[in-house]
Amino acid sequence: MPATPAWPPKSLPRLFVPGPLGPGVSLELDGGQANYLGNVMRLKTGDQALLFDGASGEWLARVSDAGKKRMTLTIERKTGDQEAVPDCWLAFAPVKRSPTDWLVEKATELGVARLMPVITRRTIVERVKLERLEAIAIEAAEQCNRTSVPHIAEPLSLEALLKGRDHERTFYFADENGGEHAATAFKPGPALILVGPEGGFTDEERVAIRAAPNSIAISLGPRILRAETAALAALAIYMAVAGDWLVAP
Description:
Elements (H helix, E strand, L loop, with lengths): L13 E3 L9 E5 H10 L7 E5 L5 E9 L3 E11 L7 E5 L4 H14 L3 E6 L10 H14 L7 E2 L3 E2 H7 L5 E5 L5 E2 H4 L5 E5 L7 H9 L3 E5 L7 H15 L8
Parallel strand pairs: 1-3, 6-7, 6-12, 7-8, 7-9, 10-12, 10-13, 11-13
Antiparallel strand pairs: 2-5, 3-4, 4-5
Helix pairs in contact: 2-3, 2-7
């Protein structure tokens, strides 16, 4: 059956797997993925699933062998092209575990290309478990129909971010002291959005950020937002006015 908007069914399980993928490629899954397909989704030989590798789009695969702890899938055909992700990076000060998990999940759903944990003077969490955040991003991409997974960078200090960043990438930062309205500040093109910790930036940090090349202070409205809310609000506004939420004329 040829691919149509109604086929393959959206109810088919989707998995992120290492590539490269292509027609006829066989993949042997074990561990958590095999358990998910076999014991949770109850797939058996002959059943189908959707796969993506973050680079080549989405593919329809059929279970060619189903064991108790292993499962083999063979790719039949391509069902979707690789998505074009807006070149938007989100730098955020890690907060407690649950809010950070939620931030990563929702930022993935919103379409972020890269997530960058940044340690500031008032950051309350300095240890970031990248493997956990990567797993959360993968699961969110599987659920929201993305064909890519955002890259999660190693944590770095604010000083290192300011020193090492690409000056050609517009640097927006949410300043609780005010700035240009985010809806008018964001423009298409490579973007880095920085949101501070629960206690905000220190005066010294704010001065350094404002002095950075190609830096624009933005305002997220009249209310005080939690750190994770501010990060997602900024990202949502960017996607609406400069990202891939724009409706073609």
